[in-house]
## 1
Amino acid sequence: MKKERFGIVDGKEIFLYSLENQKGMKAVVSNFGALIVRLYAPDRNGVLADVALGYDTLAQYQENSCFLGAVIGPNANRIGNAAFTLEGKTYRLDANDGVNNLHSHRERGAHKRIWDATEKDNGILFTLRMKDGDLGFGGNKTLCVFYEVTPENELRITYDAESDQNTILNMTNHCYFNLDGQGTGGIADHILQIFASHYTPTDAGSIPDGTLAPVENTPMDFRNPCRIGARIEEDFAQLKLAGGYDHNWVCDGYNGLVRKIAVLSNGSATRTMEVFSDLPGLQFYAGNFLLEETGKEGKRYQPRCGLALETQYFPDSPNKPQFPSSVFGPKRPYHSVTVYRFL
């Protein structure tokens, strides 16, 4: 494992850790935000490209308003009205997305914390401790993220967390992918398949209305591979509300075990990524509101130049008892696995 200095935040050294398999696939991650900074993935001929959007400097990651490459915690996605009630107590969060809470906190969430790093034989373990009441969430918590690059050209991410009282936990990674290579253009021609027969419709604030709607006969149907740009501009209410795709799909076959939930290919089908997860949901965000800014290697980013496939519990689960529970604590430690496999 290669380790190199990335900079200093609050007097603490920040490093980049390179994980590589014998085929050359490589992930470069950081103890700042447990970030995925670079992800060199092979195509079908073994040619590598960095498929993850990101930045060259630590200062840019300290801004990172679009959460490029970031681990989100303790709760990913949105919570309606920035509040929830658990066991009779109401918890109030930062209203940072209109009246709602998005990704726990824009400036002090896990994606902008310094994690402890422990090098392992097969990967890197990042650990973050958060006190009871931090960001408005209950429980003294320990969050862990373990990254490894496997011989099968997989980036495997294992999330674990413990809390001394029941609390809300829902961790994910907000990597934006472009399978042609970061900074090469848009993702409208990428081909996406999501193994989900339902999704969770939302209101104008992207808060689910609590129902599970069938994807059949709608632009939300990705059960068969479909070009992302084919229907993204259709006159469909959910697409209009979100400015394109930014929704949670209800992945089929949820039973707590890891299974394949999505497949993404670039337009030429020369590079394919399979997504595996043991979680019930997948947020597909087409990067509709990515900033026009400079990314890695001076490449110019713009809306829809990358897409996110975030494994998760459903948005606003703390306020929707009919959704799979994201309550964890002493009797239910948090554990989940996400795998991005390149073919």
## 2
Amino acid sequence: MSPEVTIQDVARLAGVSTSTVSNLLNGRNERMRPETLERVQRAITQLGYSPNRAARHLKTGHVEMIGVIVPSVANPFYGAFASHVERAALQAGYQILLGNSERDPEREQRYAEELWSHGIRGLIFGSSLLALTHLATFVEHGLSIVAFDRQAQPVDDLPIDSVTVDNVRAARLATEHLLNLGHRRIGFVTGPVRTVNRQSRLEGYRKTLADFGVAPDPDLIWEKALEKGFGDTEGVELGRSGARELLSRANRPTALVAINDMYAFGAYAGARDLGLRVPHDISIVGIDDGVLAEVVDPPLTTVRQPLAEMTLAAVDLVIGRIEGRDDGPPRHLTMQPELIVRQSTQEPSWRST
């Protein structure tokens, strides 16, 4: 916006209220009289009010921006995710606006409302909540949403696209790797299991144990049931607490599967607190394969999400919806994870009873 020209200047020249100009710029012009619309457009052009963005908005009904909502960039996985989204969006001529929601539906709703009011018509959500009904009003009004890392659910009743890794398989790969090494007492460390992706990972862990004839032991599953939040910003500390508790028990596990890499890094610290060595005394596997997985000591065995491919698919989906090139039914893309074996796992050096 030129510093010499304001929305009030446009309203004054067009003979309308500032709210009328704002409604037009934000795509709320369905009930505007054609002659009023023409006057405002003419005033914008004459005054040079945000000429490029305003012109695009008036022509397409949206600004060339994508909203990106993540739980918290305190987890480097979501920082990398946002970076990949931005790179793909810029290549397509779009910019992004990023928000951290901490998986709070009310905060996500406020973000959606604010972004919508600024003409943004496409959002990528990474919170993986069990339900997305708090976004229903925006979807009904034309907001295009892609749910990232969230498998479509039978209870979903909204036309929302999704891009995810197969989280059940991700946990299967992690658990199976430990079973094949000879581990049988395998713990699972997680924050609150109130998201689709976490439930899927816990399901994959349990199913894999059962498939190998190992009865899942509830005492080996450590879940921090927080009263508020999901443990996204506290992942390392929670992983540390979980490992300390599980590894302090008389018949402790010989291996741990962590819900993600941040919890795995915390588990490293918890093991060290007890004087245990990774992997000699305890094998640890994460999920995600973030940027730190290779540089921790020892390098972390983990399950890689194909992050670049997933984000590119999410950006392509949301832009296709925004621009009207894809008006078909919701699309749900599931990509396959890959086990990356490093030095945090080995055969058990002792057998629990």
## 3
Amino acid sequence: MMPPRRLPRRQRFAGLSFNRMLPNLMTLLGLCIGLSSIRLGLDGRYGTAVLAIAVSGVIDGLDGRLARLLKATSRFGAEFDSLADFLCFGVAPALLLYMWSLQPWGAIGFLPPLMFASAMALRLARFNAALDSAPKAAFAYNFFTGVPAPAGAGLVLFPLFIGLEANQHNQFWLQNLVSYPLFTGTFLVAVALLCVSTLPVWSFKNFKIPNAGLMPLLLGVVVFAALIFADPYLAGALAGFAYIIMLPFSVRSYRKLAREAAVRRMAAGDGTEDSTEQP
């Protein structure tokens, strides 16, 4: 009696699993939403445009963490994320501010957006180059070098947030002030310099909260979330103002940690200079 004939096994499909593609799909979604803000700006819908950039910023904060959680990090994902950041947080905010405020000044008015977009490209290129550089001190991983791209986009939209909030409450004098090309252009250039600077800025990746401050922090998040739904433009303006106030404290924290690291190196008998001294 002949043995039963075995059927050939079905071949599995070759390629990446959906889990490994999910972070890149989220980056692509954020890219589409960020670029859609330009179309909304062309239609004069500036309020919806800034909210689109804010949503793309939230997605940008999630895709990297999701990639690490799923162990799907790759060099392709890092490069794709940088290109998306340049378009969403470098090009889109600059064009929005040009259409909203700087367009009456023509070619002169286009210079600040051009400087901001160029500075954002340089900032992201420096970040990518740092991935292949020598490892930094342990505490330095808690800091960005310069203002990161999503935060830079949020800061540079500060005049637009104020203008939209003033328009809602018929405060036309304030709207005219923040939309004046000289004010908007100066703000664009200032944020561009912050992005390409060597200023140490908290990354909040390993930020530890004392037990006593945990409950106030949670209550503050609840209040801010309620404010986002009640008045998103005011929430955006307050977030930008709080970020600016935070920068000097970030520099002070970095310098304190750098001094402590230098003291530990000296106590360990290493006479070499500490390469992570203040920027």
## 4
Amino acid sequence: MLEIDGSYGEGGGQILRTAIALSALTGKKVKIKNIRASRPKPGLAPQHLEAVRCVSSLTDADVSGLTLRSTEVTFAPKGIKGGKHEIDIGTAGSIPLLLQCIMPAATRAEDVLFLSIRGGTDVRWAPSIDYLRHVFLPAIAKMGYDAEVEVVRRGYYPRGGGLVRAVIHPSKLRGVVFKPPEKVLIKGISHSSRLPEHVALRQATSARRILSDAGYDASISVETNNYESTGSGITLWCDNIGGCAIGERGKPAEKVGEEAAESLLIELSSGASVDVHLADQLIPYMALAGGSASITTRELTVHTKTNIWVVEQFLDVEFDVQENELVQLVKR
């Protein structure tokens, strides 16, 4: 049985998600210890429980340690099934992060996977659902990944209540050399729920102003709704580069728009082919792809280093890392 130290490197939930996904995909039994050891509340949170439960259901796995705040899980998978599955995180736990645990394994499922997931779509410390749809999914589609994600309703912290439907097809991944955008065409979505309509509009207006001052035009749509939970956010993107920000009580809408725009501009100005967040998310897919795959990114984050380490425990692959003005990551 392969043992993974959950306190390694970044020491967060990413280690668990990647390890469970690759265990399911390779059929290797795994024990993950010291789960989320570096977090204020170590161990499994609700979103991690539901992610492991879902992958367990997909693989008829034998699992132990699957309780709230558990710091050790053993996972012994069988074959990967498709079919329909309903998942309720039960909180505003991140739906995009839960999908990170499921999606790599689904590449080798026996059939198409249909998911209906309830939880948080736009929450702090996680990619937004629009980032997943408009940055992450198009990036892995270039590698041959076939999936569609639909947002039925958004869910914000603390109530959640979001609903996302995903259809994931078994896929054979191929290596890709990611390149910087040839043309900077910035798009975005500014959204709010149970708030005055001007909140989402002000977020978008502020983001456009920052981008215009930097010499860029942006097409940003505005969505206002009356979902179960109250909140707002904005996501901006240009090819494989994105920036997002979440509204909070007491934070002006203008500040939310500024944060997203400035985050995007930092990445665009670097000349990298992918942003720093996408870099770590692509590591498992690059490892699974046939042939060589490469990206450049602004910096080598602890998240990316950690994901490389986890992947290399499961798969016979090696990543070359060259740190110059940009960081180049190449999977041989």
